[in-house]
Amino acid sequence: MRRTRMLTVMLMLAVAAMTTSAHIGSPDTWFRGEAGPYPVQVVVRLPGVVPGLGQIDITVEGDGVTKVTAQPVIYNAGPEGAPPADVATPVPGRPGTWHAELWFMTPASFSVKVGVEGARGAGMVAVPVAAVAEKQLAIYPWLGKLMLVLCALLVVGAITIIRAAATDAVVPPGEVARPRLAGTVAPLAGAVLVAGLLFGGWQWWQSVAREYADGLYRATPMAARIDTVGGVRHLRLDVPMPTTDGPRSASSRLVPDHGKLMHLFLMQQGVPEGSAAAFGHLHPVPTDSATFSADLGTLPAGRYAVYADVVRETGFAPTMVATVEVPEGRARVNGSSSTQQRVAGPAADPDDAVFVGTAADVQFDLGDGASVVWERGNAAVTAGDDARLRFVVRTADGTEMPLDPYLGMAGHAVVQRTDGGVYIHLHPNGTVSAGAQRALAERQVTDSVPGMLAARLAGANGMAGMPGMSHSAQPTFAGALDFPYAFPTEGDYRVWVQFKAGGVVRTAAFRVRVGMPAEAAGRPT
Fold first, then answer.
1. What is the phi-psi region of residue 367: left when phi exceeds 0, alpha when psi lies from -120 to 50, beta otherwise?
2. Handedness of CA 75, 434, 416, 292 (dihedral sign)
3. Phi, psi torsion values for 266, nearest 5 degrees
4. Which stretch of 222-226, 308-312, 436-440, 511-515 has the lowest confidence by average pLDDT?
5. Which of 467, 454, 423, 470 is nearest to 128 (CA)?
6. pTM
7. Please, are residues 261 and 286 in contact by the beta-carbon 8 Å criterion?
């Protein structure tokens, strides 16, 4: 009974986890940064089920490293409430790479603390990880057959015991058992009873399995509508938020990420292959307790897939989705002077950008002699392997273009599988959210009331104090952009790379066909 109750509680906890990091279809967490004096790259591969065993690969640059550790810390417990750090082991044949396995027992927002010790001293970095249930594992065929055999033996044994209890067990010592009516009725009644118990257990199992399946992560839907006033279009978004953590409004429980409460991406749908398609990166602002609004500026009319990324004060960074039909309209006559690439007109936010163009394979022409080159090499791009998302921005004379800080970083990238099954917003430090890092790092034991941490962080500069953001104070960046990531599945993808040069946000679009890993070829699906 205790084990059954524990299983039910675990399943209910998994059902309750209806959020994840800012991705769709990309369960792995990629991080590139510094653990004190050590440059590190961390890849956390979650099993997709909770409880589950995560695989952690840590690559440390430089020699002299003697020890690498990893520790999962739940967002509201702190290090004192976490298990001891696991010591990672070196990976044979991969110098500088260490491996650890961590149990994630509860669906929640975690901070995986990676520690490095060596000749340069000790350092630590926290990587935000959202542990949620994203899939339902099937039972192994051999285990299912074994369980059926054992069940059959138990059923036969139970009926045999019932028959013996009704016949041989009631015969006085020394007498010979004679055929009795009970010898026929009792086994039949026992068989009916056992069948009823089996049926009830099967129904309970199916009910629990359905609850678990219903609770698997799906991108959170949100309501989207267009309000047009004088030809100027505004996108209104109703943002759903948990209702179990207090009465405060939805927006009050969000923390800034790169100085914005929301990053909104719109991808035009239904455009024939090889034709120009629109892409928008906007930053809506809250208009009431649970509604955000964005000026669509010069975004062309059409049907769009909408992805909204926010960061909650718990460290969760969910992606919310919608589809919207954008009507014809015009840009505002007032606003910022930011020029949108290939589309004239002002924007409501100087960091907003609207792009219309055709995706390239390797080199994207920016239209003024400058270009963006995807240095992915000649090898085929395969799912699960390093995607080699390295892009170099070059001026007309071939030199690297100096880049301005864009939302505190050298650039941003967005990846989408053309069928919508994969979406993710990338940064040079990986798939993690800087806002989530900051929320986890600055959370205090006194932040027990929903909205307290968000209010404190909102009162500070939106990008000040973000872990891994020390480079944001630099006046310019080199023209090379590198995003650690691996495409999770095969298929056709689009990659949009955004950066700022000369005070103007610019966008380059690429297409790529991602193949199946060689080791997976020929396997049954």
1. left
2. positive
3. -125, 125
4. 436-440
5. 467
6. 0.78
7. yes
Amino acid at 33: G
The pLDDT tens digits of the residues spanning 374-389 come to 999 888 999 999 999 9
Measured between alpha carbons, how far is 217 from 227 in angstroms, rounded to an integer?
A: 31
Torsional sign, CA 443, 446, 451, 456:
negative
The pLDDT of 296-306, averaged and rounded, is 93
Q: Which amino acid is at 16?
A: A
> Domain residues of the chain, as ranges?
2-131, 141-214, 220-456+472-520
Tokens of 332: 């505002």
Among 207-216, 244-253, 335-344, top mean pLDDT goes to 207-216
The secondary structure of 288-346 as a DSSP string is: SSSEEEEE-TTPPSEEEEEEEE--BTTS---EEEEEEEEPP-B--SSS--PPBTTB-S-
Distance between alpha carbon 420 and the CA centroid of its chain, in Å?
Answer: 14
Predicted confidence at residue 252, as pLDDT, reads 59
Q: What is the mean pLDDT of the chain?
A: 82
Which of the four CATH numbers 3.20.20.80, 2.60.40.10, 1.20.1200.10, 2.40.160.60 does domain 2-131 have? Answer: 2.60.40.10
% of residues, the chain, pLDDT over 90: 49
d(CA 434, CA 444) in angstroms, rounded, equals: 18
